């Protein structure tokens, strides 16, 4: 699928894979020779992201400059001539919301990081942001108000991101689209019944909207409990 899609930049989240353990077939993906991997320090099989690019970035950084979160390997940022591409795997609030407070601290620190980038050049944020922002973004909103990914605190965190000059590209283009989900639990045949959540986003700086061509959810692509999304920008 990656070869057919032929992206300029491929962002992967929750890789659960240290740099030395990246499979050779990923290392050898045609057209994506520039690869940057982050993984959790001392926690094999936890978290992790990867950013793969067709052309070499001007600069690559890891983390958001916050020691509480950077050891988890959740963010890789690549600078290109016209924009920053940020690949992010936002923390889950956890069963019983046991990690909601650390999650909210991450949201605050991450927004400040994105603002600092945006002050330099436009930003494209791609990743599993672990929140369904509005009721339209999950199948059963009423039943999930106290569950991870749909608490008022997490939703407000995303609202603050939008209020800081960023745009949810999919909702900008398809404000009324229903059943547009990117995650389905493996339990109970949820994907076949489209009982899902939209947790994966391409978020852009407002000044990139003139360059936004499309934002697609590739819901027919199998291989994970999430599906890929694709942002198309003329930059």
From TrEMBL:
Keywords, in A-Z order: Cytoplasm, DNA damage, DNA repair, DNA-binding, Endonuclease, Hydrolase, Lyase, Magnesium, Manganese, Metal-binding, Mitochondrion, Nuclease, Nucleus
GO molecular function, one term: phosphoric diester hydrolase activity
Enzyme class, broadest EC rank: hydrolase
InterPro entries linked: AP_endonuc_1 (IPR004808), AP_endonuclease_F1_BS (IPR020847), AP_endonuclease_F1_CS (IPR020848), Endo/exonu/phosph_ase_sf (IPR036691), Endo/exonuclease/phosphatase (IPR005135)
Pfam annotation, one family: Exo_endo_phos
Interaction with DNA substrate (site feature) positions: 226
Cofactor(s) it depends on: Mg(2+); Mn(2+)
CDD domains, alphabetized: Ape1-like_AP-endo
Annotated site residue numbers, Important for catalytic activity: 200
Active-site residues, as the UniProt record annotates them: 89, 128 (proton donor/acceptor), 226 (proton acceptor)
Record-listed Mg(2+) binding positions: 14, 128, 130, 225-226
Cofactor notes: Probably binds two magnesium or manganese ions per subunit.
Enzyme Commission number(s): 3.1.11.2, 3.1.21.-
Location(s), subcellular: Nucleus; Cytoplasm; Mitochondrion
GO biological process entries: base-excision repair
Domain Endonuclease/exonuclease/phosphatase per the UniProt entry, residue ranges: 1-226
Major site of localization recorded for this protein: nucleus
Cellular component terms per the entry's GO annotation: mitochondrion; nucleus
Catalytic activity: Exonucleolytic cleavage in the 3'- to 5'-direction to yield nucleoside 5'-phosphates
Residues flagged as site, Transition state stabilizer: 130
Family assignment from sequence similarity: Belongs to the DNA repair enzymes AP/ExoA family.
Name the record gives this protein: DNA repair nuclease/redox regulator APEX1
